[in-house]
Amino acid sequence: MNARRAWIISSWLAGLAAALWVVVHAHYITDLSAFLPAKPTHLQKLMVDQLRDGPASRLLLIALEGGDADARAQVSLDMAHRLRNDAAFSSVENGEVLTAARDRDFLFAHRYLLSDAVEARRFSAAGLKEAIEETIDSLASPAGLLLKSLVPRDPTGEMLRIIDRLSGTRSPRTQNGVWVSADGARTLLVAQTAAPGSDTDAQERDMGAIRNAFSAAVKSSAASSSSVNSSAVQLKMSGPGVFAVAARAKIKRAAMRLSLVSGILVVAVLLAVYRSPLALGLGLLPVATGAVAGVAAVALGFGAVHGITLGFGITLIGESVDYSIYFFIQSLHGGVDGPPGDAWRRRLWPTVRLGMLTSVCGFASLLPSGFPGLAQLGLYSITGLIAAAMVTRFVLPELLPPGFRIGDVAPLGLRIGRVRDSLRSRGGLGIGYAACAVAIVAMLVLYRHHDTLWNRELSRLSPVSPQDLRYDAMLRSDLGAANVLDVVIVEGAGLEEVLRGAERAQAALETLVDEKIIGDVDSPSRYLPSLATQQARRGALPDARTLRDNLKIAVADLGLDLEQLAPFVEDVDAARHAALLTPDDLRGTSLAAGFGALILHQSDHWSALLPLHGADVAMPDVDVARVAAYLAAAKLPNTEILDLKLQTDALYAGYLQEAIRLSLCGFLLIVVLLLAALRSPLRVARLLAPLGLAVLTVAAALVLAGQQLTILHLVGMLLIVAVGSNYALFFDGEAAAQRAENSALTMASLGIANVSTVIGFGLLSFSQVPVLVALGATVAPGAFLALLFSALLTWRAPRTTLNA
Amino acid sequence: MKLRVLGVCFSLLTGAAAHGATASGTAPGAADALDEVMHSLAERRHGQVSFVEQQFLHMLKRPVESYGELIYDAPNHLEKRTIEPRAETLVVDGEVLTIQRGRRNHVLDLKAYPQILPFIESIRATLAGDRAALERLFRLEFTGSEMRWTLLLTPLDAQLAKTVASIRIDGSRDELSKVEIRQSDGDRSLMTLRAHSGR
Fold it and tell me: In Å, how far is B145's CA from the nearest CA of chain A?
C-alpha cells in the first residue's frame, strides 16, 4: 500500500512538474488572432491583415484638453518633438509645417510627372489657352495674388492642382500653428506606431511613451514660462490600440476582482461545511492540477496560448471543484466500514466519471471550431476536467491523513431532502405537467423570437464602452480622418501593378465622388503615380519648339507676354528628359509617410489601399453596397471594397452558426455516451429532461429580458449541461440503487456544489465586461435550475419512502 | 498625411509672395480727425457692400477684374464673396480664415500665416475702428477731413514690407470707398466699394 501510495503521489508530482514546465515556457499571445479564423477566406485574410497591421490599426489619436489654447499649443509642439525622436512612432502629426520647403521643392520640380492634368491636349494651343486663362482668373483672388511669382514657370497651374488634389476635402482647423477641434476646445495630434495595432503589449508601451512625453512637455512648458498655465492641460487618447489595451486591462481587472471575491465566498462556504482548512486545501488540488494541465495541453496542441483561454478556462473547469466536494462529503461519511475512499471508489466514482465524460463530450464539440479561441477553450476544459477527475480519484484518497474528518453535513442534506420531498409530494403528478408547461412556454418564447434570437454582431462582445466609442468618433470627425472602416484594396504581385490598379480604381471612384455618394478617395498613386502613368505624362510634353509655337497662339489675346513664359518652356523641356520617380525619391519629404501608409507588402504580395471618406460630416458612413456594386460593374481586376464591420460581423456570424451546429453534435454525443453507459433510453431521457428544461428556461428568460444571445451564451448553455449532468447522474444513481441512507449526503454535496457554482457565475454577471456578463447570467440561473429540475424530475424516491 | 499637405500649400503661397524689393513709407503721426473717423467706424456694427476689384500685374497687359460682395459684422467677422470670374468665398472670423473654392474648404489660422495678415487686418481693423490694432502692424498717415478722408498704411515689419509697400484706404465718415494695395514689386490692386442699395 505504501509503495503504491508513493508511486501515485510521485507520478502525480512528476506530471504536475512537467506540465508546469510547459506552462512556464509556453508562448502566450494577447492579440486579436484568437478571434480570427484558422483557415480564412481571401477577403477574411485581407481583413485580418488590416486589423493586424493596416495603417488604421496603428493610429493613436491624441487630444489635449483643459488649460488655455496657448498652453495646449506649446505642449503639443513639445510633445510632438519628443515623440518624433522615438523610433516607436513612424509618424507624429500635429499640424506643424515641418517639411514644407522640401515638399514644395519636390512637388514643384516633378510637377509634370505628378499632375493628373498633364496630357497631350493640355499643351496644344487650345489646351494652353484654357489652362492659362484659368490661372489668370485665380490670380484675381487674394490667394492667387500670392501665386503670381509662379506664373512664368507654371502658367498652366500644375502646382496648384497637385496641392489641391493632395489636400483633401476636410482638414482640421489650425490654431497657434497646431491642429485643434472645430470648436477650438481640444488640441489634436495623431501618432502612427511602428508596431502593428494587434501587438497590444507594444501599443501599451507606446501609450506609456506618449504619457511620458506629455508630462515632460507640461513640466518644461511650466518651467520655461510662468505666464502659460500648462498644468491644467489634460491628455486623452483614443484609437484601436487604446481600445485593445483598455479592454485587456478591463477584462483582467474584472476577472481578477471577481475571481477574488467569488474565491473568498466559495472558500467561506466550503470552510463552513468542512470545518477543516486541510480539507479545503486538498479540495483545491484537483482544480489547480486541471488548470495547469489544461494550459499545458493547449500550449502543446496549438503551439501558443491565447489570453482568453487563460481568462475563461478556469471558469469552465470550475465543475472540478465539485468533484472534491462529492469526494469528501460522500466518502468520509459513507466510508465508516473501511479505509476512507473505498465506498467512494466503488459506488460514487463511476457516477462522477460518467458526469465528467458527459462534460468532456460537451466540450469536445468546441474542438473542431474554426474560431481558435473556442477550440483552445475546448481542449483546455477537456484536459482540465480529466486531470481534475484523475487527481480526485487516485491522488486525493492517498493524501488524506489518518483520522481525517470533516464537519457533519448530514443534517443539511436532510433539510434539503425534506424541502425536495415536500415539493414533490405536494406537486405529485403536477410536477410533470408543470415541467411540460414550462418547456412549451419556453419553446414558444424562443420560437416567437427566432429571427432575432442570436446577435450576429461582433461589437456586442466588445468591452469598449459606448462613451469611449463616441469620443473616438468625435476626435475622428475633428481630424477629418478617413472612415477607417471602408477601404478599397487593389492587390497584385508588384508595386507597379498595384499602383496602376489604384489609378484605375481611383478614376472609377471619382464618378462616385461627383455623385456625392462618397466624399473623397485617397490613393497611393496621388503621392507616386505608376511608372506607366509617369511615362505617359512625360511623353505628352511637347518639344520646346512646338510648345513655343502653341504658346504664341494661346496667349495671343490673353494679355500675357510670351517672353515672360520663357522659364515655362525651359522647365517643360527639362521635364521631357527627367528620370521617372520611384519610392526612393519621396524620401525626406512628408509624402513618404503618406505613401507608405497606403501600400502594404509581404514578400511578393502587394496591396494598395484606397480609404474612402464619407460624403459629408452629417453622413460619415459610406454606402458600401453601392460602392461594391459600382466596382463590380466597372470590372476592375483584383479590386475589392473591404467593409471591416461587415466582414467581422460575417466572420462572427459564421462562428456562431458553426458553434450552434457543433453544440448540437456535442449534445448527440452525450446522448450516445449515456445510452452506452446506462443501457436504458428511459433513464437517459429522464436524466436529460431536466437539463434540457433548464437550458430552455434560461434561454427563454434571457430573451424575455430583452437579451440577444451571443456565442458566450452558447458556451454558457454547454456549461449548464456539463455541470447539470453531474446532478442528474447522482439523482439517477441514487434512484437506481434505491438506497435511502445516502440520500442526505448526496443532497448535501449537490447543494454545496451548486451554491459554489451559482456564487462563482452569479458574480460574473455583475461585471462590466459583456462576455463575462453573458457567461454569468446564463450559467448561474441555469445551474440552479438544473439542480432543481433534476431533484424534481430525475430522482425517484425509494419505494420504502413512498409506502411510508 | 493629407492634412500636412495643406500647410505646404499655404507656405508655398506665402513663400512665393515673400520676395521682391524693399520699400518703406514715411508718415507723420495721426491727426485728431483720425480719432473721430475711427469712432464713427466703431459705431457701425454691420455692413454689406458690393465691390469691384482690379489687379494691375506687370506680367499682364490689362488688369484682371473681379466683383462680388463684402460683408462685415462687428467686431471681427469679415467675408469676401467673389462672384466673377471664379466663385470664391473668404471668411475671416477672429483668427480663423476659411477659403471656399469649388469643392474645397480650407481652414487656417491667421497667426500661422503672418504674410496674409496685413491684407485682411488693414480692412477689418479699419472697419472696426480699431486704431490700436492698425498701429500694431502699420504706420498710419491720415489726411483730409471726416467727410472725405484718406488713410495710408505702411507696414512696420520689415518682413511684411517685402510683400506690401502700402495700403491706401479712402472713405467718407463711416463708409469706405476705395482700398488700394501696392505691392513691393510694383503690382497693385484697387478695390472700389459701393453701398449695397446703390447697385
Answer: 31
pLDDT score at B20: 31
Residues 6+ apart with CB under 8 A from A467: none
pLDDT confidence band for B3 (50 / 70 / 90):
very low
Say whether B5 and A166 touch across the interface (CB within 8 A).
Answer: yes
**Report field, pTM of the whole predicted structure over 0.80:** no
Please tell me if residue A514 touches chain B, with a CB cutoff of 8 Å: no
B69 vs B48: CA distance, rounded Å: 7
Q: What percent of chain B has pLDDT over 70?
A: 75
The DSSP result for A245-307, as a single string, is HHHHHHHHHHHHHHHHHHHHHHHHHHHHHH--HHHHHHHHHHHHHHHHHHHHHHHHHHSSEEH
> Distance (Å, rounded) from C-alpha A692 to C-alpha A704?
18
**Residues 6 or more apart in contact with residue B95 via CB below 8 angstroms:** A175, B109, B110, B111
Give the C-alpha separation, B112 to B106, whole Å. 14
- Please state, for a pLDDT cut of 70, what percent of chain A lies above it: 87
The dotted CATH code for B2-198 is: 2.50.20.10
Closest C-alpha to A186, from A198, A178, A194 = A178
Q: Which among A787-796, B64-73, B96-105 has the top mean pLDDT?
A: B64-73
Residues of chain A with pLDDT under 50: 169, 334-337, 482-483, 797-804
- Domain boundary assignment for chain A: 1-30+275-406
Residues A1-30+275-406, CATH architecture: Up-down Bundle (1.20)
Selected residue with higher pLDDT from B165 and A613: B165
CB within 8 Å: A145 and B116: no
SS3 sequence of A4-57: HHHHHHHHHHHHHHHHHHHHHHCCEECCHHHHCCCCCCHHHHHHHHHHHHCHHH
Three-state secondary structure call for residue A395? helix
CA distance A102 to chain B (A): 9
